[in-house]
Task: structure prediction
Amino acid sequence: MDVNRVSQGQRIAAIAGVLLLIDLWMNWYSVNVSDRALQLARGAGITVPDFSASAWQVFSYTDILLAITALVAIGAAAATASGTALPVRLTPIIAPLAGVMTLLVLYRIVNQPGPNNVINVEWGAYLGLILVAVVTYGGMRAASETTEVSAPVAPAAPAA
Result:
């Protein structure tokens, strides 16, 4: 593996992709339990559990699409580093896929699952939005960078 072959954009996208995979297990949403309800529950001797959920627990398909986006970014960098020739270039796919996922995560932050007065958006969702946006940036940068090596230019003939 020659990591020097990997462009700066691919590195950015791959690192953000790894962090995005980790972020999918962080808390994205929690349930807003009022202070009065907590006091009543504690007064009755009821312990109130932590009602928080990760992206894997909340989403039905968004989490899978986010994981695919991260894996495409990681796979593009890994294929370039190892010199593996894939039938499809992954670099041009990263930016559009991650861009759509950025908009989808933004939508799920603005319109979280469940009633707005009950569900809280947690820091994991905001971190996920930032990370998928960074994957988009890395994909755009990688698509604009040329990784092909041009043939050497022959020296000009000396003037007589």
